[in-house]
Give the backbone structure.
Amino acid sequence: MNKIVEKENFSEKVVKIVVEAPLIAKARKPGNFVIVRVGEKGERVPFTIAGADIAKGTITIIVQKMGVSSTKLCNLEVGEYITDLVGPLGKPTEIHNVGTVLCSGGGVGVAPLLPIVEAYKKAGNRVITVIAARSKELLILEDEMRKHSDELIVMTDDGSHGRKGLVTEGMEEVIKREKVDECITIGPAIMMKFCSLLTKKYEIPTMASLNSIMVDGTGMCGACRVTVDGKTKFTCVDGPEFDAHKIDFDEMMSRLGGYKEEENDKMDHFQN
Amino acid sequence: KDRMAIERVEMHEMAPEERIKSQRVEVNIGLSKEEAMLEATRCMDCVNPTCMEGCPVSINIPKFIKNIERGDILGAAAVLKETSALPAVCGRVCPQEAQCEARCFYVEKLNLKSVAIGHLERFAADFERESGVISVPELAEPNGVKVAVIGSGPSGLSFAGDMAKSGYDVTVFEALHEIGGVLKYGIPEFRLPNAVVDVEIENLRKMGVKFITNYIVGQTASLDDLKKEGFKAFYVGSGAGLPRFMNIPGENSNGIMSSNEYLTRVNLMGADSEESDTPILRGKNVVVVGGGNTAMDSVRTAKRLGAERAMIVYRRSEEEMPARLEEVHHAKQEGIEFLTLTNPIEYIADDNHRVSQIKVQKMELGEPDASGRRRPIPMEGSEYTIDATVVVVAVGVSPNPLIPNSVEGLEVSKWGTIEVVKDKMQSSIPEVFAGGDIVRGGATVILAMGDGRKAAANMDVYLKEKYLSKKVEL
Ligand SMILES: Cc1cc2nc3c(=O)[nH]c(=O)nc-3n(C[C@H](O)[C@H](O)[C@H](O)COP(=O)(O)OP(=O)(O)OC[C@H]3O[C@@H](n4cnc5c(N)ncnc54)[C@H](O)[C@@H]3O)c2cc1C
Ligand SMILES: Cc1cc2nc3c(=O)[nH]c(=O)nc-3n(C[C@H](O)[C@H](O)[C@H](O)COP(=O)(O)OP(=O)(O)OC[C@H]3O[C@@H](n4cnc5c(N)ncnc54)[C@H](O)[C@@H]3O)c2cc1C
Ligand code: SF4
Ligand code: SF4
Ligand code: FES
Ligand SMILES: [Mg+2]
């Protein structure tokens, strides 16, 4: 049982939760995630650790309401407990001083990108960050990102904030303007696919952080399998980050829909 | 001589058409006291009880059975507990027909049905549990030495029990949110009710064993971190939790999953119930690939989730199936179809990337291979397809790599199992012992428990020498 000590609604759909987890706060590295379970009938669902405070013994997760499990989590209030929380899981991001790094985040994927941006900056890189959302209300962590990046470009689909356009447009502008040594992209699978296609064109090494469906998060079930370079990998223990140019994004996207009907039924059951 | 004339007792079972309605109804109902006492009279209390040689932990079989014959059931349970930490579990899931019962005098010398050792073991353990007077074993004076157990499967639990008895301060760390390992997330409740396992865990708690769930040693904290917290020695019982796939075309289509995923969703997460937030895929036609216990558990689960056709696809013949005989027998009663000498070679998906058909090939048996079983050979031109929208792959597991990957200096075999000194269960790091599936690859509950006990005995010697006899500062 882990106590929620702070909560902030970023928007109607996106909530920041700070929760007590002293050991995880100490052990976590950028790129790691946790698995949480809310209630005795709860599902095990993964969320990236968006930040940690070792002194306070807390970690931060940023949750977008999707279906039953994320909604139940978002409905918890300060002082209430998350039934189960385990981590840190997954391999941490490999962070080196490579020169200039282009970081791109879309939607709630901006949250897991934040600790990575911080770490790249700390390692001495020039960090240019492009964040994107459908509209102004859905954009998160803009100030934090600006603070840790040498340059921040904000894109919205509808032009309600920053510039109008897709995340790839902002990225391409940077790539055309200056030498980029490495790229990292986190966001919806379709966005990562197009980011990957873009950087492949310019031959820039790129990592993508995958959000496959998970159960245990320890390599035990294989629900999270993806094809990378023609081989089956388990996202939870071999990833979540992989060489974007080798990921079979189409398979990955189809697997994300593997339980769609059942998930909708669960949501209907929950709401009624 | 009249003993020999008695017919072997039959286990009472729920009717197949009733039991397939629920994942949570136990198939075997148990014996009455009268039946158990009568069955016990069949045992001839052999001077040389070969049955004990068949039991991996050498339970004193004639002794416990004779107590049942006398009606001293609690006495029988006490005999079991001398050797086995979880008799109610082993009485249910041991492959008895290949172990103790295979070596019974009735089988070896008389060519008759063996004494029903497994049923009697289950009876005695259940009787004790239901009597409510479970004896908490006597504990040695606490010695203040902290030991950690990594993994709460049968191996870790039996180790924890023995160490607590010897006076150690025992903490069990478990990665999942439930205690029990495969006993909870793998083996379904229709074979092993969770309540049976929970009573044993409760008993360990009463003995002072501490349990910490949601704690992955090597991730949440390292072995070195635990040493700094004062843990002097470790028992790794982290199991063989890594599922194997066949790497054939289309295997990553939706609807195809490992038996671990399928069984975990249902058994651990309760996805058979509408109240659970965890989804499960149901299908009219379900294929399970494999012939072991895991395959039988998966296919019988599929039946209980409403499959019209629940099929086993296995590349050898029924004779070579590693599953317990009883499971195969029960599966057949429940209407499971067995497509033996058949091997999947490709999965065909529909437009939504959901599996719709399996392409299989017929096999024939050739010469025996390294395992002593006849090698299956594909028959050219025998391919055909089977319709299925859910496929469960149950072709084996590999050792869980979390601990081998995170502990420096730990010697690991090329199969990923932890190397230990045989009979001592001590690894290349003196204060780290290991046993169960992480040492053996996929094995059995009783072997995992036996390892736990052996490790406890040897670790006790090791720790006494190192810390207790010399009165070293702790
Ligand atoms: C490594 C990793 C890190 C993630 N980090 C974040 C994060 O920081 N913030 C955030 O909002 N989301 C994150 N996600 C996604 C988040 O786990 C899903 O949105 C959540 O599980 C949806 O569950 P649900 O019951 O609310 O929705 P559902 O209606 O059940 O599902 C909605 C969609 O979410 C995906 N999903 C469903 N179940 C799971 C599952 N068990 N595991 C993974 N995905 C699932 C599927 O694509 C599904 O179609 C992450 C996922 C992974 C794998
Ligand atoms: C479906 C199924 C049916 C079976 N049926 C039978 C049967 O009928 N009869 C029989 O004898 N055997 C059967 N077996 C085999 C038997 O269950 C195993 O041999 C036995 O459970 C092994 O015990 P164990 O304690 O070594 O490991 P496990 O039971 O696998 O337990 C290991 C535990 O360690 C935890 N863990 C792993 N790494 C860490 C870590 N780093 N930190 C913390 N915790 C960790 C895991 O989460 C798990 O809970 C079956 C197996 C399966 C999967
Ligand atoms: S533990 Fe298993 S093998 Fe040993 S006597 Fe009991 S049922 Fe037989
Ligand atoms: S071999 Fe059979 S008859 Fe003899 S002691 Fe063992 S169980 Fe009894
Ligand atoms: S989530 Fe189960 S293996 Fe990755
Ligand atoms: Mg869900």
